[in-house]
Model the fold of this input.
Amino acid sequence: MPVTDRRFSCRAEADEAADDRPLNPSAAPTLGDLINARFSRREVLRGALGVSALGALAASPLALFAGAHEVMGTEGEAVGAFGFTEIAHGVDANHQVAPGYRAEVLIRWGDAVLPGAPAFDPRGQSAAAQLRQFGYNNDYIGFVPLPFGSGNSDHGLLCINHEYTNEEVMFPQAEQPETDTARERVEIEMACNGGSIIEIKREDDRWRVVAGSPYAQRISALDTEIAISGPAAGHARMKTWADASGTRVIGTVNDCAGGITPWGTYLMAEENFDGYFLGDLQGHPEQGNYARYGVPAGRYDWGRFHRRFDVNAEPNEANRFGWIVEVDPLDPSSRPVKRTALGRFKHEGAESIVNADGRLVLYSGDDQRFEYLYRFVSEDTVDLTDRAANRDLLDRGTLSVARLDADGGLTWLPLVFGQNGLAPENGFASQADVLIETRRAADLLGATPMDRPEDMEANPKTGRVYVMLTNNDKRRPEQADPANPRGGNLWGHILELVSPNGDHAAERFTWEVLIKAGDPSRPAVAALWNPATSASGWFACPDNCAVDPQGRLWVATDQGTAWKAASGTADGLWALETEGERRGTGRMFFRVPVGAELCGPCFTPDGRTLFVAVQHPATDGTKDYPGFERASTFEDPATRWPDFDPQMPPRPSVVVITKDDGGPIGG
Ligand code: FEO
Ligand code: CA
Ligand code: CA
Ligand code: CA
Done:
């Protein structure tokens, strides 16, 4: 039985423990001596932004929809400051929010999504029920106002990823994987992955899920048929016994962060797909390709019952995961599509912005130690007047990977077949090969290995792009470089990228370190914060981020297990100033219950509602916290958040946050 330790409560933790060597063989130090982070230097965005191409579209309904967060604003637009009273670091069984705010559960694992969903019964789960219910481990959240194009902040669709499953708190002891319980448990897990689309409304000052909505969708790893498009579609390496065309795959897995496009589609980013495959491909032509991604990691035993997840039985199936999936939330009858032009890696996020020339620019990190930052620039321009015109926009364009130089410059290196060694002599016979083996192609180009790149998001008001780098305990001090300045980086850091004249398609950007996370009172941490940061204003392990309608940055953390004891606080959401004298100052807004991670911060267009995803409550690091000190089980979890019902296990849930006086979140 090749399944590895089933007790991993979190993908990040599994990475840390199972992988003593970096998968990236090119992670040697290349950038010379460590230089000081240029905290005080500002590469301020100056010059004309060339917004005229968008100006003509500004009056269209689609532009109205997109205007809150996807279309670049004008240069020098004021970014607001925060004005709330922060909460303290700490950990307990419940969530906590800043005074004057209300944080209420909107939807929980097992709640109804599709009509006919049975009531959640944790001791009588079935795959059939789960396919109609809200999945596990909510991650990315995207909001699409209804009617489409209205900019409405009281009614819309919420698109939510379900990243992975935590069996130890989902199933009673008798049903744990090591007891050899079987197919039904595996299929519940498969049904729990994917995404949910729900219709929500704000009425009488309360948000609720609209029951029986015609928009409701469940996308899963078990039964959702997904098309494959773009340059790798139909390639021999994408064909399987079940799909001789190489253009059709069942399911999506480990959908982590994501994005909403300006035309209102929902992008799901497949992250740690390696964990779902069993087997051993010694001597097979795909062996080197798979090794670069850690396939097969065998974290789940799906391959026992669904042979396509056993690489010995189906050597090509793993080439069909690790992509970005585009879903139309406005048309539940449409088929989702894996867009191969965006590359294959452990995608963390798919946030986009319409460039001044009208093309779409999409940023995506590859979340593993020593992996890279990617950017996709569409060939065609976005049509903000006709949704359908953008249907295949993500199939054509240029994917690039970032090299960050010691002088503060960044070069985007195009991953294009036939250029810069991406050619037959290096094992690439086509653009399909380049995309299927995106990581190896990026290695050849000399991309900069980063400290677990997570969310990357452009601020539409300033044009600057924020990069969350969670941590990298495997970076040795001699491997430190200006963009990843600490060896043994347990705490993570945030970079700010600046494009010339606001041109997100430019070949050269500049960058600087915004903060180096971790406890600033411990000299050994070498943290970098604005000295005005309060005792609870610093955080560790930045993971997801969001920019609110005022252009302010919010950062969600994922400390995993080992880091929590060092920070003394649960994960949460911090407001982080990026402008003026308070640049680099944090403020704690929301805290998750013990063992959880915070994902998916998402604002309505008016900034008066904030949705957050509380992921894997009761799992990560619970044994390190005073008062908990044990690994959770279904029978004895560290918290039964959010129900606190002795009959209910902990349940990952979406929480909706509003201000008591109805004002903007964050003041
Ligand atoms: Fe799914 Fe990289 O967090
Ligand atoms: Ca995460
Ligand atoms: Ca993470
Ligand atoms: Ca984000």
User: Anything to note?
Assistant: The longest strand covers residues 194-203.
